[in-house]
Amino acid sequence: MFRHSLIEVQVETTSSGQVIYFLEPFLRGGTLADHVRTRGLLKPDEVRHFGKQLASALIHMASLDLVHRDIKPENLMFDMDPSAPILVDFGLVRDLAAESLTQSHMARGPGTPFFAPPEQLNNEKELIDWRADQFTLGATLSMCAFGFHPYSEASDSDTDVVEKVARRDALASRFVAAAKASGLEALIRLVQPYPVLRHCFPDSLEKDWS
Question: Less CB within 10 Å around the terminal CB: N or C of the chain?
Fold first, then answer.
C-alpha cells in the first residue's frame, strides 16, 4: 500500500501573522534519486511496482481534489523498505476546490520545470487537475527507468526539453521505442502533451498498472 509523508497540517498565529507548517516523519532510506544513483536505473518490474503504488496515490489525491504539482525523484522517499515509496513535499499542492493562488499574469506556473506538464509550464490554470500529476509521475518514472526525459532526444539540453514540453512537441522517438521494448507502454499515456490524452478516469489509470 502506498503511503504519503504528511501527518498533520497546523496553522500558528504569531506577531508577524499566520504560519502554516507540515508535520512529517523522519525518513531514513533516502530519495528515489539516491536509489538510482547508488543502484542504477530501475528495472521494468520495479517501474511497474512503483507505478502501481504511485497510481493509487494519484487516485487518492484526486478524490480529495488535490494536485501535488511537484512529483519528481527527489520528492519520493523511502523509510526502511526500498520497495515502498513515500510522497513528500506538499508545499505546492493545489486544492481544486479553492481559488488558485498563482497569479494569472505569471508566464510560468509553480513546480519543477523539467518534470512539469505543459499546462503548468504555460500557467494554463484552467487545464490543471489530477492529470498534471500523471505527467510528472510519468516523467519521473521514465527518467529513473531509461535515464532520459520522455521529450528528450540524445542531443537535447534540459532547457531544450522544457521548451519542447511547453510547446507540446511530439514525444522523443527514443522514449517511445524504449517504453515499448521494455513493456512499459503505460508511461506513454502518462506524458501526453494534452491532459485529455492522459487518463481521464481513475479506473483507467489503475488498470494500466494492474
Answer: N
Q: How many domains does the chain have?
A: 1
Model-level pTM?
A: 0.87
Q: Which residues contact 157 (CB under 8 A, 6 or more apart)?
A: none
Residue 191, in any domain of the structure: yes
In a domain, 5, yes or no: no
What pLDDT was estimated at residue 23?
A: 78
How many residues appear in the chain? 210
CATH number at residue 62: 1.10.510.10
The string of pLDDT tens digits covering residues 90-138 is: 888 898 988 766 666 665 767 899 999 999 999 998 999 999 999 999 9
What distance in Å separates the CA atoms of residue 66 and residue 77, rounded to the nearest whole number?
20
For residue range 154-181, list pLDDT tens digits in order.
999 999 999 999 999 999 999 999 999 9
- Does a structural domain hold residue 1? no
Query: By residue range, what is the domain housing residue 190?
Result: 28-208
**Catalytic site residue from 65, 70, 79, 208:** 70
Taking the chain, what is the end-to-end CA distance rounded to the nearest angstrom?
A: 13
Catalytic, 70? Answer yes
